[in-house]
TrEMBL record:
UniProt superkingdom: Eukaryota
Short name of one Pfam family: DUF885
Descriptive protein name: X-Pro dipeptidyl-peptidase
Organism, as annotated: Ascosphaera apis ARSEF 7405
InterPro entries for the chain: DUF885
Database matches in SUPFAM superfamilies: Metalloproteases ('zincins'), catalytic domain (SSF55486)
């Protein structure tokens, strides 16, 4: 991109690559189709027709964008982008924060193979396990797909696409730092905002929205850590089972989803047929801290 080692300069180029007001919904639809087509083309996970055809899209109000400055997903995808009643600087920050490449790296996280596909299976396969809902399973799954598509050379990645994907990886790490630090009394809300702006390359408006969302009380102190820790657990489990040839990749993903909510170590026990009893204690060493 001609920026040398100046990643903030590269990020600035990417942030200014956005679609015109009124066009974001078209972009989201195209990106959603791209993600679905990819996992189907390479037979990575079973995608039922109903899951593909019945998701909905909503635009978030200016008030909601102050708490959710990006996307929210599940049975529907909620999109942040300028609306007429917003001030000009708010519109610009919304467009820059939801540029083409940031969006491409997250639409599949929210829809297919991410949360939309999760919620489809959650309501149909072993729904009684919804009692065990945790961010490690829910958010870990979608972030795991960000890692997998980063690794997969078949997923097209231009330099700008890569910057978009790396922004989100940095963003996830920064959220762990500020959310836990806030709850430990080591950072104020304003310091959390400044961290996202100065260390993670956020627009100030999106940083403020992220901090409001994380600290308002709707999310547990460990929720943001759940994204990364859950994803790393699933990634490690894939290395154990798929990369060694014990389970085909599609079967791995399908069985994970059909198992419904549970700790990732229990997913491992299920897929590896590990005997369980009432005295079972957690014992999986899934991360090598020496590296």
């Amino acid at each position: 991109m001609g920026c040398g080692d100046n990643w903030m300069e590269a990020l600035e180029i990417v942030r200014n690559d956005y679609v015109d007001p009124g066009k974001q919904t078209e972009l989201v639809r195209e990106l959603a189709q791209e993600g679905t087509d990819f996992v189907e083309k390479y037979d990575l996970v079973t995608v039922p027709e109903i899951a593909k055809d019945t998701w909905m899209m909503y635009m978030m109000s200016p008030e909601r964008q102050k708490v959710n400055p990006f996307f929210l997903g599940g049975e529907c995808i909620q999109v942040s982008y300028p609306v007429p009643e917003m001030k000009h600087d708010e519109k610009m920050m919304s467009m820059r924060g939801n540029n083409i490449h940031f969006s491409r790296a997250t639409v599949f996280h929210e829809l297919i193979p991410g949360h939309r596909l999760q919620y489809y299976y959650n309501s149909r396969s072993r729904p009684y396990r919804q009692l065990f809902d945790t961010p490690f399973w829910v958010e870990g799954w979608s972030l795991y797909w960000e890692m997998i598509l980063w690794d997969d050379p078949r997923w097209t990645k231009t330099p700008r696409n890569r910057i978009g994907m790396l922004f989100w990886r940095l963003h996830r790490c920064a959220r762990i730092i500020f959310s836990i630090s806030f709850h430990l009394g080591r950072m104020t809300a304003q310091q959390c905002v400044d961290l996202l702006v100065n260390r993670a390359g956020h627009e100030r408006a999106t940083a403020e929205g992220e901090v409001r969302r994380s600290l308002a009380g709707d999310y547990s102190p460990l929720y943001q850590a759940g994204y990364m820790l859950g994803a790393l657990q699933i990634y490690k489990l894939r290395q154990e089972l798929v990369d060694t040839g014990l389970i085909p990749v599609k079967e791995f993903h399908d069985r994970f989803l059909r198992g419904n909510y549970m700790p990732i170590e229990m997913v491992r026990a299920l897929l590896k047929d590990v005997p369980l009893n009432r005295e079972y204690e957690t014992c999986w060493k899934w991360y090598n801290f020496k590296n």
